[in-house]
């Protein structure tokens, strides 16, 4: 009898090893004095304590509704919440449910929108299937794709988001290589993309639906639209989604979350998809957890029903607007005189994307990152994590991984922390110029 | 341009089609007058309304702890909760953490224990890998295995749970067929198995660790111990787990939930595994949702810390004991004169497993099921759903699927509903004798 045998993990387990998020979190833990402009948390002080308490109290003032929230829910999520989500979405789009071609049955509530992204990947992607993404894009979703064994192909991006001519050319090239049948998804963070802060222009939101449909020759190529930052808009109204330009709802799968606009600790997100995609997600989610936390859903439903949520979003916009302006002011103050350093002014979201001269690398192993964390006591997310590169496709077909960017967030620090962090970061950068 | 293309789902999506749980839930929805002895919900009236309110109020009385619960948590779950879980588990086992060979780092909090079961399957099982299960066993986990493309092989079971001689013989037979290298897991619901109500004897709990280690020739064969019903014991103390007989903790992976013993709407479960298995689960969970609902975890931590939880479990035992006795009394009253009908007296859990004469089938398509639901207005879970059968292995090697059982639950109905349901069910059965 032996008790020293090796574990034989599944093949897919080996694909989700060494994710950068783990390394980042570990750095945060190991270097407690470091001021983080990296952490993807939300602003601590503006979390909706009194609103949540009020919504909870209202829920628990009636034993019947309290018990309902403590019992199992359904896999797709609370029906009363899903009805409110439909209203919420039609308000955001300023279109009726009919115009949008959706009913409550198209909605599934998940553990943050992250779970929706993951479930969608599970039901659509086999190992070797292809997902097209912007360069740069949300690096945690790149980890999800990697964990599924999918091929990730980057598409060139400019100040209006993913370029439609590049997308079209990439699909054409894939067809020429006999790979079009492996393309399943185009992933887009339409509003204030994490990490770049760029929004996809309205014109391209229309175009991308047409491009996806044009290349859906052998099977449907879906667009997965991630609207995590949608409601955190600081300079203008909420933008219409890509989904709003897809009248049948057969091409675009939309996902949103209340993690950024309300409270991540409730873990409530949702997605909207066609009936067949919903069935697939629901079957997988039924196996995975039978449904997300029911009590959170009931609390959020009360906050939405009583308009507490909407007041909070207004308040949050003012909080984050101030913090964004603070970071941009600090960038101006500490970085504007540094040669070939520039950054994007985001109209919403939580991130400022900063570009250093080509010669300065920002990755985990770079001397800049190591100096910043150990000497200057400040941390950022290396931009290279946000680029995918498909080695099979080769270097002429897709944008190269860029190694001279930093993702800076104004989400978690207060204005003082933002200023101090930017000052420290400028110090670190200066020594490499 | 076309907009009518078929969706090409992933291969694994096709494996999780048509799960019986969906059919059961649909029957419940479509037949609202039906009295359900099938639904896997918990008793509605004993849900911990005032305890949850008290735990929430305590959490929200301090803005700092309130905010912490509304912020993102960590993928592995709240550290303060995991510390309490370690204490909780050592109390249940009546052994120290050292004796059990575990620390908080071995704990991962999940969305119910269901998510733990699913994650564990994901990180260990490739399509074609083998999991050994009792006959009968928890049918939702069979769905999880099916969704992963795993082979499920049944092992003979008697009134003391899975037979160790049969388990040993099955492994020997698999080795002879050159399939031992595909065996990854032995799945066991040790206490008051869903559906049979049978507990694995203490002797076999020791033996199964030895059997798993004996056959871990090429790689480690893990035992996945599902203790969902552990604390719902009505006739004696909590039993020591299989895990408690695995001193190094390298062989047994244990999972528990607060869905049955507290409130499923919080969706808090957890698992305990070796460091390497924890890393694998954590990586997958990081991609899937970054962590389960943080607020639920903080509420439960308060309930555990202030001993409110333990009082509630005592109370629940008395509630369910009465309901179990009610169902057994009703079985005696309505079924004892029916020839060749017998049932198991469970010492805990939520289920009574009833056996009809061999000639009476109970499946969804059987005339008994259809008559019960449409004429007698009562619903049960057909026993055959709880049996796996591996067609590759063949019929001589494993117990056949038995088609003459019913899983009856006393969880959701009150005593009046239980009596009425059993009366209706006896009526349905009688017409086939």
TrEMBL record, chains A, B:
Cofactor annotation: pyridoxal 5'-phosphate
MF (Gene Ontology): 2-aminoadipate transaminase activity; pyridoxal phosphate binding
GO BP annotation list: alpha-amino acid metabolic process
Entries under PANTHER family matching the protein: AMINOTRANSFERASE, KYNURENINE_ALPHA-AMINOADIPATE AMINOTRANSFERASE, MITOCHONDRIAL
Group of enzyme by EC: transferase
Record organism: Gimesia algae
InterPro entries assigned: Aminotransferase_I/II_large, Class-I_PLP-dep_aminotransf, PyrdxlP-dep_Trfase, PyrdxlP-dep_Trfase_major, PyrdxlP-dep_Trfase_small
Xref: Pfam families: Aminotran_1_2
Protein name per the record: 2-aminoadipate transaminase
Segments forming domain Aminotransferase class I/classII large: 57-410
Keywords (A to Z) from UniProt: Aminotransferase, Pyridoxal phosphate, Transferase
Annotated EC: 2.6.1.39
